[in-house]
Specification:
The protein is mostly helical. It is built from 23 helices and no strands.
């Protein structure tokens, strides 16, 4: 098998020191391998040197096979397997990889984001929304989930409850006891809440009205940012889908680690994956082709001119 690309014949002819007329007459329909072999057998020292250089001279390979031409790069990649194509991805610039995410639908992007580590998902979310917006836009059941989480320390909650106006503290107590609060002293109401058993305390928290509940969770998340990882990934995805378009989501995904983005790009079909790879630095493309896919390089050299 061989891979056919538009070879830079003039460059090859010049490197071998052959006149244009002779080159055209003798080698018009021969492969690079055949041309170099015939010239080397004739004792052409330039051909002998060139045969060795083709294995390790990146600039030479770029010139002879016209790798600066994106069509040639795409032609080469059209014959490559997923495994061979994937070898280029770790060598690519992060910004080029991120641009490749535009080939996915927004629905697919969000599904992939749901699969990343919670810490990384939160980074993307906070590129798109302020914490205040997150608390306002997330469903209330997500705020309740955080407040009721086993990872939530009661003492942390009591500290932040002190920042709420007394009227909300009184409502929390009344929602659990069913009785009107007579002593509305702020500190005394905090002590009352502290005295509730775990179930009563959680009931008091979720009974808060939406606005003070958002303020409470916001206050907690500002002091303990890791708490934002407790929200469901799907809720974050729905929020992004509702309020942001794909271009905004892709731009925000630049905060992800290269490894995360690379794994996502691997899910593209081969034709689109090739287009993404074709955007990489040409020198880097040639170097990766030679070092990581030598069998492909051999097919190119053996290809017809």
């Amino acid at each position: 098998m061989s891979i056919q690309v538009d070879t830079n014949l003039a460059y090859l002819q010049n490197k071998l020191g052959i006149s244009a007329q002779i080159f055209t007459e003798k080698y018009a329909n021969k492969s690079v391998t055949e041309i170099i072999k015939e010239e080397a057998e004739k004792g052409n020292q330039l051909a002998i040197a060139l045969a060795s250089e083709l294995l390790n001279n990146v600039n030479l390979v770029m010139e002879i096979f016209g790798l600066a031409n994106s069509e040639n790069r795409l032609e080469i990649m059209s014959e490559m397997t997923d495994e061979q194509l994937n070898k280029f991805l770790p060598e690519m610039d992060k910004n080029d990889l991120v641009q490749g995410l535009n080939f996915f639908t927004q629905d697919k992007l969000l599904k992939m984001l749901e699969q990343v580590e919670s810490e990384d998902l939160v980074k993307v979310v906070l590129e798109l929304f302020s914490k205040e917006e997150v608390m306002r836009l997330l469903p209330e059941d997500q705020l309740d989930k955080l407040l009721q989480s086993t990872e939530m320390d009661k003492n942390k909650l009591l500290v932040h409850l002190k920042s709420l106006p007394p009227v909300y503290l009184a409502q929390m107590i009344e929602n659990v006891t069913g009785s009107e609060v007579e002593d509305t002293n702020h500190l005394n109401m905090i002590k009352t809440l502290d005295g509730f058993n775990p179930l009563e305390f959680k009931d008091a928290l979720v009974s808060l009205q939406s606005t003070p509940k958002q303020e409470l969770v916001l206050s907690l998340s500002k002091e303990h940012p890791e708490l934002m990882q407790l929200f469901d990934p799907h809720s974050y995805a729905n929020m992004m889908n509702t309020y942001k378009d794909k271009s905004e989501v892709v731009k925000a995904m630049n905060v992800l680690e290269v490894d995360n983005i690379t794994e996502m790009i691997k899910e593209l079909p081969e034709d689109l994956l090739s287009i993404v790879i074709a955007q990489m630095d040409v020198d880097k493309f040639a170097e990766t082709l030679m070092k990581k896919n030598p069998e492909v390089m051999a097919q190119i050299i053996a290809g017809n001119v």
